[in-house]
Amino acid sequence: MDVINIFLTSDLGESLEDFVHDQRRFTFDQMGPEGPKRLVEGPMWAFVDWVMPELAGLELCRRLRADPRTIDAHVTMVLEEDNPEDRRRALRAGADDYVVGPLTRTAVLDRVLALQSRTSERQATRRYELGALTIDMSSLQARWNETPIVLRPNEFRLLRFLAENPNRVLTREDLIAGLGKREPAIDERTVDVWIGRLRRAIKAAGGGNPLRTVRSLGYVFDLG
Amino acid sequence: MDVINIFLTSDLGESLEDFVHDQRRFTFDQMGPEGPKRLVEGPMWAFVDWVMPELAGLELCRRLRADPRTIDAHVTMVLEEDNPEDRRRALRAGADDYVVGPLTRTAVLDRVLALQSRTSERQATRRYELGALTIDMSSLQARWNETPIVLRPNEFRLLRFLAENPNRVLTREDLIAGLGKREPAIDERTVDVWIGRLRRAIKAAGGGNPLRTVRSLGYVFDLG
DNA sequence: CAGGCTTGTGACGCGATTGTGACTGGATTT
DNA sequence: AAATCCAGTCACAATCGCGTCACAAGCCTG
Predict the structure, then answer these.
(1) Is A44 exposed, middle or buried (0-12, 13-18, 19+ CB in 10 A)?
(2) Strand-by-strand arrangement of the B218-221 sheet
(3) Which residues fall within 8 angstroms of residue B222, CB to CB, at 6 or more apart?
(4) Neighbours of A71 (CB within 10 A)
(5) CA distance A23 to chain B (A)
(6) Mean pLDDT in chain B?
(7) CA dist., res. A138 & res. B33, Å (int)
(8) HSE value, Cβ hemisphere, 13 Å, CA-based, for A1
(9) Does the beta-carbon distance from A85 to B65 stay under 8 Å?
(10) What is the rounded CA–CA span in Å between residue B151 and residue B197?
């Protein structure tokens, strides 16, 4: 599967409507009532427009992160204006990059081209190497010293999110949000079970325990 | 300027009144008649209590956003109850995060610690380096010459507070207050036990004893 | 549509954490 | 030197949070 570059914008603009044409299409059918209003996409990129200006964009970003079809997409958020808060929020929601809108056709095209050139480099980057642990995002396979770790979907997402934020305490809330599970609300204690199952899976592959519990706060992926 | 973590709450509670002490202070003098009732703050965080429960909080949040002194602060709103409407309003007003109250002093302090690690990610990660001792606030991990020190939560809080005020005698009262323990009242002699446990943990990691006892006064973290 | 796999949740028990009183030994004072 | 003071340490109990299990509902697959 090709790398998809996804642009999230709350103001897609008529001018972009036919910017991408004659391409295959897929729909984010799981998006729900607050989902994208329009979706224009091609094999290497997609533009997603949403209805609600504020939260839906971040929420959409999280869902894209959780969806296996777009889990390794390159997500760019289009910000209304350039302020540090929006930037921070976007990145925290899982966006890889951001640009400040509104976008002209040429600006987007430049951006897409730049992303495409980075794509090959990104192919190599789509692999986390954290000590003995490697996570290959293209085959969705995690290994401990070449030994495959048998993971269920949710455990894989959890491991990926933890590995993306090594040496950082992640609260149970962070983890729930990071896996894109906002609806319905998840009990925080459930995270304990996730961690337990993930630890067991790693151990079953002969691995150690890189997941440290920080009492009354959350968990850390210890690296180094 | 350091990142400030601001907690907005309509129910600060008496117990938090002197939670942060002996720190530099500034006032939000532009706040106007609906401004904060009390402001308790330190170099890295602030608790703002307001009079009107509903609108004033949101308004305050917007003003903090506009004020150059707090423009890049991390604002957390404390919500009375957990409903999506309030959450959306809080975020729309510029809040970065929210928690559902009421909060205990220790819980708030822990929260601040976790937030510091997140908000400072774009800067150099928050980290104390005191001779052979390093305290990494993002992973909540202390080390002595790269050797991890196994600390329980309270010991970590104690070490952090001591390390924040090196070469300064801290009374037992200071330490109790600095760790946010006011309810219930803590016997001052208990601090002796905390120090003892902390020393033992450092020694177990092959470390020395940077904690000097000042008889009849308190303890100092010796540096240099 | 049946069967298995996945996942969220309540319950349970255990272990970790922590405040406290008591005891001890060294330091300080008278 | 005796008396007093004070810090270090230990054992213990109460509490709190975490790991784990079993179960049920959901989801996917054939």
Answers:
(1) middle
(2) B170-171, B218-221, B211-214
(3) B166, B167, B210, B211, B212
(4) 17
(5) 36
(6) 66
(7) 58
(8) 15
(9) yes
(10) 9
Phi, psi of A177 (to 5 degrees): -65, -40
Average pLDDT of the segment spanning B61-72: 52
- Nearest CA-CA partner of B39 in B61, B22, B20: B20
Q: Cβ contact (<8 Å) for A167 and B88?
A: no
* Residue where the block lists tokens 């540096």: B223
Chain A neighbors of B88, CB-CB under 8 A = 54-55
Name the nucleotide nearest B219; use CA and C1'.
D7
Max avg pLDDT among A25-39, A73-87, B13-27, B153-167: B153-167
Average pLDDT over residues B16-21: 34
- How far apart, in Å, do the first and last CA atoms of chain A sit? 33
Domains, chain B? 5-119 (3.40.50.2300), 127-221 (1.10.10.10)
- Residue A24 CA to its chain's centroid (Å): 22
> Which one-letter DSSP state was computed for residue A155?
H
Q: Is the CB of B216 under 7 A from strand C?
A: no
Predicted ipTM? Answer: 0.62
DSSP one-letter code for B19: S
pLDDT at site B19? 34
d(CA B140, CA B161): 13
Radius of gyration of chain B, Cα coordinates, nearest whole angstrom: 19
Q: What are the strands of the beta sheet with B127-130, ordered from one edge? A: B127-130, B133-136, B141-144, B147-149
Query: What is the maximum span of chain A, computed from C-alpha positions, in angstroms?
Result: 55
Low-confidence ranges of chain A (pLDDT < 50): 1-3, 10-45, 49-55, 103-107, 109-110, 112-124
Integer CA distances (angstroms), B123 to A141, A189, A215, B126, B127, in order: 32, 32, 26, 8, 11
**What is the rounded distance in angstroms from the CA atom of residue A74 to the CA atom of residue A47?**
12
Angle at B106 between CA B105 and CA B108, to 5 degrees: 65
Which residues make Cβ contacts (< 8 Å) with residue A127, sequence separation at least 6? A134, A135, A136, A137, A138
Residues A207, A213, A218, A224, Cα dihedral to 10°: -60
For residue A22, the distance in angstroms to the closest alpha carbon of chain B comes to 38
Contacts of A176 in chain B (CB under 8 A): none
> Taking CA A22 as the corner, what is the angle to CA A17 and CA A28, rounded to the nearest 5 degrees?
65
Please name the residues in contact with A141: beta carbons below 8 A apart, sequence gap of 6 or more.
A135, A148
Tokens 């103001």 locate to: A11
